[in-house]
Amino acid sequence: MIKTLPLAEAVAQLDLPGIERNLFSSPSWLDVIRKTYGTRLFIKYLERDGRVVSYIPYTVVHNFLEWKICQCSYCDYCDGVVESPEHWRLFFEDLRREFPRYRIAIRNLRDCHARQAGVFELLSQEYCHVLDTRPDLEALWRGSHDSHKAAVTQARRKGVTVRRCGREYLRDFYRLHLSVRKNKYRIFPQPFHFFENIWEAYMPQGRGFLLGAFDPDGQFIGGNIYLVCGDTLYYKFNTSSQAALAFRPNNVLFWEGICLAKELGLSWLDLGSSGPEQTGLIRFKEHAGARRMEISHLGYHPPDYKFSRKRILKAMTWVFTRRWMPEACLRWGSRIMYHYLA
Q: What is the spatial distance between Cα 285 and Cα 272, in angstroms, rounded to a whole number?
């Protein structure tokens, strides 16, 4: 029999195998999501002889735009710990019974049983890149592309320095993050409160780091936020000044992230997701020596499902990211609208 508990209760009461095996199913990350966006998070699980053998974390999204069950909102991917395709079919049927009018959305990387269950349609795919950081630094340097090594060397010759930053630099990071999202990608930035919650959950415990790049005049020109979960360092957020790209801050920040992973004794560096159309980002990750994996977007919708009204979000995004829109207005808009991007 399938059982269901709110995430916090499940973590407190159950021994959930592999709960910390990746960032996006970990309690710390999901609690950041809950605190920032008020997301409703649950665990469905199956037991054998009093032990949890299969479980999935999921979010319940119910607003004026759409109704859906997502594994999980605001995550690059989110694999459950599921023993077999049959267990996935049982979870699916239980979700359908409980939420008959909701669509179901799965972001899957390593859980082959979700793909084999025969209940989901493959909607699309994107990429995730992972770098094996177990070799020594010299081998990792040799394994990167010549263009990546040249960019790191160039940054150093131009006087770029990288250091671990305290919380006083979080606003500098966010200022560049907002500018890049608005002017380059034309999308909403996450609200600043999201990064504050990440800081509280990870940085004081030594499980998160903001690496900042500084030009020869000491100006903050780029930053990476790295988070630790299990044996993996996650390259979660990157930003840089578009006016300072000649200093090649992104390359040197990434190389320093590799050095950080080695210092912490971690085995892997997760570089996050990339859409197939993001050819420049994919090339950057692969030139750094990372290997490509596929994230499968799986889904189901009931026959009478009313499809989402995301065109409203598209219109709001178009307005708020216009070049004439003051950044203060975009920050206000992100606090309101990002809750609907689940």
A: 10
Q: Is the dihedral of CA 300, 97, 36, 27 positive or negative?
A: negative
133 with 270, same domain?
yes
| Strand, coil or helix: 210 | strand
Q: What is the mean pLDDT of residues 72-92?
A: 95
Q: Percent of the chain, pLDDT > 70?
A: 100
Q: Of 119, 97, 3, give the one whose Cα is nearest residue 53.
A: 3
Q: Are residues 252 and 288 in the same domain?
A: yes
CA distance 69 to 299: 10
Question: Do residues 288 and 147 touch, judged by C-beta distance below 8 A?
Answer: no
- pLDDT, one tens digit per residue, over 137-146 is 999 999 999 9
Q: What share of the chain is helix, strand, coil (3-state, %, to 5)?
A: 40, 30, 30
Residue 342 predicted with pLDDT over 90: no
Coil, strand, or helix at residue 117?
A: coil
Q: What is the pLDDT of residue 127?
A: 96
Question: Which of 226, 127, 133, 123 lies closest to 173 in space, CA to CA?
Answer: 226
- Residues facing 261 on adjacent strands: none
One domain, residues 16 and 101 = yes
CATH number at residue 263: 3.40.630.30
Residue 300 C-beta-side C-alpha neighbours within 13 Å: 21
Give CA–CA dist 254/238, Å, rounded. Answer: 9
DSSP string for residues in 74-110: T-S----B-S-HHHHHHHHHHHHHH-TT-EEEEEESS
Residues 231 and 291 in one domain: yes
